[in-house]
Write a structure and sequence with these properties.
alpha/beta; globular; Rossmann fold
Length: 209
């Protein structure tokens, strides 16, 4: 049985004015932010996990960082974004939020910046270049201790992951191929207990043993 998006979203509580503004901005300017059903599920699982430190790969305009910080008042979040304009927007939106003191934005390529001084993170949220998920995971998973969790968004990739490769637009085939390789690799990884949640654009949750 399938449920309509309208029915699913009827369970979502109203957001504050800033978040609604960010959602409208993202929609009007084609900025990818996490879909509402996906961020609601992510935040509920984070409330259960109760991480104190979170690393986010892919800040965009700061929407998911603010949502996570609001869900976890006692947490601190480090978020990395390489696009300078988005970094500027994210810092502005975050400064206007009530959780600005919980969030640190780092400008740079997540594959090049060094955050090892932060020692470990209880949770890592990956929502950046889809074709680089394997590289992001390999770089940052060592910073997650046993019992920590890595969350990966956009595994469904707007339905492209479900298509035969020859039916995927040519310019996106390498990305989808890399995404499938990563999915196969992590689902069979001995160090992680991983599950795919068909919510939003597809959320993969990996518990480190």
């Amino acid at each position: 049985m399938e449920f309509s998006n309208a029915y699913i979203e009827s369970f979502i509580k109203p957001r504050n004015d800033l978040l609604v503004e960010m959602e409208s901005f993202a929609n009007e300017n084609h900025v990818p932010i996490m879909q509402l059903p996906g961020i609601e599920v992510l935040n509920q699982i984070l409330r259960i996990q109760k991480p104190k430190t979170i690393l986010e790969i892919g800040t965009a305009i700061g929407y998911s960082a603010i949502r996570m910080a609001l869900a976890l008042p006692g947490s601190t979040i480090v978020t990395i974004e390489r696009d300078a304009e988005r970094v500027k927007l994210a810092r502005d939106f975050i400064s206007r939020s009530e959780v600005a003191n919980q969030i640190t934005v780092i400008e740079g390529d997540a594959l090049e910046v060094d955050v090892t001084s932060n020692t470990t993170f209880d949770a890592v949220f990956i929502d950046a270049a889809k074709g680089q998920y394997m590289r992001f995971f390999e770089k940052y998973s060592p910073l997650v201790p046993s019992g920590g969790v890595l969350y990966i968004d956009n595994m469904y990739m707007h339905g492209l992951s479900d298509l035969k490769l020859e039916d995927v637009p040519r310019r996106k085939r390498t990305m989808i191929r890399n995404l499938r390789t990563f999915a196969d690799w992590i689902m069979n990884h001995d160090e992680y207990e991983s599950s795919f949640f068909p919510v939003g654009d597809g959320l993969l949750i990996c518990l480190k043993r």
